[in-house]
From TrEMBL:
GO cellular component, one term: mitochondrial matrix
Location relative to the cell: Mitochondrion matrix
Main location: mitochondrion
Keyword Flavoprotein (UniProt): no
Organism: Upupa epops (Eurasian hoopoe)
Full protein name: Delta-1-pyrroline-5-carboxylate synthase
Enzyme Commission code(s) on record: 1.2.1.41, 2.7.2.11
Classification of source organism: Eukaryota, Metazoa, Chordata, Craniata, Vertebrata
HAMAP family (UniProt xref): ProB
Protein family per UniProt: In the C-terminal section; belongs to the gamma-glutamyl phosphate reductase family.
GO biological process: L-proline biosynthetic process
Length: 666
């Protein structure tokens, strides 16, 4: 072994057998032992003289939070040279002749030449101050930190390696955060360079390789490498076509062009990638991310551990299909091709999809049966959600009818002139309908949503990314395959994409360069979560389905029971199902009221009494906890009102402006 910077290129005996790194980001939350490597660009200020105190304080806070969760945290840090340079510069200025300082003038004093400072002297002067700063910061969180300085020789000698390993394990056992750095005060002289102005800096590649080596030696679960770039790009960052690589796999380095090194230090991205791949080979997962960006540095470490899409994640498991970014690009290109078709061609695609829903019903229902069996065996879905998950022949027939209606009305969806204004003679300004772009539609356990939304996207010439609930995975897969089969008749198969990767919804909501509009279809909680997570992408949210039926004194007896049965019992999980039944006070204790109650009992609908209705009864059903409840099941609330005006006021106060009904002949 020649030096640490060569470690990524060699195979050497490790202190443990090869472990298994995490295959997916979502698994990072299970990381127990974590190494955080802080590059010089993260630790130092922009003027390259002194430390970025605010940034360091934020990093210490995040490390402390994870340590207090029961994880074992280690830090590999740079910064001693920069901190020492600041101190030595100050000492040199103070040691100038008092007379020279007094007579040279303030402006000349500012321009006073500072001699070139030797890096090892800077390290010696800065190491103690750097450690004192870490200790003071960690003390705020009742955490003890310990300093460990190492050199190349400590890894060449087997006994020293064992001693280092034993020391680190003992510190972790005592809940102490080890802070490790190269002992730059005694290392061999580096080759001259000017990374820090006026200082020959020790190569940062030492700390990249040191972090990787320690991560593997200590059998850590995760290595987080913080630098001054967002992660690994497919071309030099800053170039027009540069795209952040979300997941990097061994063997991909041939397709990557490395740019220049970071603002401070010698390592550069190439050295980080080599060190990361070496650690990955040793069983440690790695993420390279930006530790300097003011908007994300305050939570970058905790975000990575939570599995959020930050930086570049190194994985040995390559998915079979395209990444979600690639799917977004395919949907955009496919959507543009779709928009270029004639309206009749888009309608043909939808008609074909409607045919496939009925022609392939056995395949669809078989897949749906597998989803239902898994959901029932795992017991993870409530009865209303199971009903939403279930498909049937009648549902598929209804879907096909709905799709044909969309196809018939789709001819004016794109290119329709809404308004025309004459600006001047022979100059008209037109407002014309155009596709939005790429839609991301997130839906829960409703596989019938997939063909519905696909048909609407096709009719309007939009590319579509679909993210369905995992409980409907088999059904969604078959329905998406049929959708792409229909799209293929005009060569636009890629316009509709189903996201099958283990992407968190929050990560999808950050793809502002790929997605133009997000439409969540599901519970109000889902809508709120998406609105909160969306970064720079509009969200078309919908309200809850707190739907009312008011029965007036002039209502038709025949219509009342039919409408109530249909709106509550036919499909109680639907968002436009009856949740609150408002009854005119004069109808209480009448044959019509008795018919309503008898019908609800026969249909096994659980009744909750509103406050006014309960006051009329000696033995009332359970009083409702809230008049703003969406049951989504064979349950409803009954409340009494004095007339249509009070009914309308009640609906305005407690309803969600979704679907409300007045039954009357007046």
């Amino acid at each position: 072994i020649r030096c640490w910077s060569n470690i990524p290129f060699i195979t050497m005996p490790l202190s443990r057998a090869h472990g298994k790194s995490f295959a997916h980001r979502s698994e990072l939350k299970h990381a127990k032992r974590i190494v955080v490597k802080l590059g010089s660009a993260v630790v130092t200020r922009g003027d390259e003289c002194g430390l970025a105190l605010g940034r360091l304080a934020s990093i210490v806070e995040q490390v402390s939070m994870l340590q207090n969760q029961g994880r074992e945290m280690m830090i590999v840090t740079s910064g001693a040279v920069a901190f020492g340079k600041q101190r030595l510069r100050h000492e040199i200025l103070l040691s100038q002749s008092v007379r020279q300082a007094l007579h040279s003038g303030q402006s000349q004093l500012k321009d006073m030449a500072i001699p070139v400072l030797e890096a090892r002297a800077c390290a010696a002067a800065g190491q103690s101050g750097l450690m004192a700063l870490y200790e003071a910061m960690f003390t705020q969180y009742s955490i003890c930190a310990a300093q460990i300085l190492v050199t190349n020789l400590d890894f060449h000698d087997e006994q020293k390696r064992r001693n280092l390993n034993g020391t680190l394990h003992e510190l972790l056992r005592m809940n102490i955060v080890p802070i490790i750095n190269t002992n730059d005060a005694v290392v061999p002289p580096p080759e001259p360079n000017s990374d820090l102005q006026g200082v020959n800096v020790i190569s940062v590649k030492d700390n990249d390789s040191l972090a990787a080596r320690l991560a593997v030696e200590m059998k850590t679960d995760l290595l987080i490498v913080l630098s001054d770039v967002e992660g690994l790009f497919d071309s030099p960052p800053g170039s027009d076509d540069a795209k952040l690589i979300d997941i990097f796999y061994p063997g991909d380095q041939q397709s990557v062009t490395f740019g220049t090194k970071s603002r401070v230090g010698m390592g550069g991205m190439e050295a980080k990638v080599k060190a990361a791949l070496w650690a990955l080979q040793g069983g440690t997962s790695v993420v390279i991310a930006n530790g300097t960006h003011p908007k994300i540095s305050g939570h970058v470490i905790t975000d990575i551990v939570e599995g959020k899409k930050v930086g570049t994640f190194f994985s040995e498991v390559k998915p079979a299909g395209p990444t979600v970014e690639q799917q977004g690009e395919m949907a955009r290109a496919g959507g543009r091709a779709l928009a270029a078709l004639q309206p009749e061609q888009r309608a043909e695609i939808i008609y074909r999809l409607a045919e496939l829903l009925t022609d392939q019903r056995e395949e669809i229902l078989l897949a749906n049966k597998k989803d239902l069996e898994e959901a029932e065996n795992k017991g993870r879905l409530a009865l209303p959600l199971l009903k939403r998950l279930s498909l049937s022949t009648s549902k598929l027939n209804s879907l096909a009818i709905g799709l044909r209606q969309i196809a018939a009305s789709s001819k004016d969806s794109v290119g329709r002139v809404i308004r025309r204004t004459r600006i001047a003679k022979d100059l008209d300004l037109e407002q014309v309908t155009v596709p939005i772009g790429v839609l991301l539609v997130i839906f829960e356990s409703r596989p019938d949503c997939l063909p519905q939304v696909s048909a609407l996207a096709i009719a309007s010439g939009n590319g579509l990314l679909l993210k369905g609930g995992k409980e409907a995975a088999y059904s969604n897969q078959v329905l998406h395959h049929l959708t792409q089969e229909a799209l293929s008749i005009h060569g636009v198969k890629d316009a509709v994409q189903l996201v099958n990767t283990r992407e968190e919804v929050e990560d999808l909501c950050r793809l502002d360069k790929l997605i133009d509009l997000i439409i969540p279809r599901g519970s109000s909680q889902l809508v709120r979560n998406i609105q909160k997570a969306a970064k720079g992408i509009p969200v078309m949210g919908h309200s809850e389905g707190i739907c009312h039926v008011y029965v007036d004194t002039d209502a038709s007896v025949e219509k009342v029971t039919r409408i109530i049965r249909d709106s509550k019992c036919e499909y109680p999980a639907a968002c436009n199902a009856l949740e609150t039944l408002l009854i005119h006070r004069d109808l209480l204790r009448t044959p019509l009221f008795d018919q309503i109650i008898d019908m609800l009992r026969v249909e096994q609908v659980k009744i909750h009494a509103g406050p006014k209705f309960a006051s009329y009864l000696t033995f009332s059903p359970s009083e409702v906890k809230s008049l703003r409840t969406e049951y989504g099941d064979l349950e409803c609330c009954i409340e009494v009102v004095d007339g249509v005006q009070e009914a309308v006021e009640h609906i305005h106060k407690y309803g969600s402006s979704h679907t409300d009904v007045i039954i009357t002949e007046n």
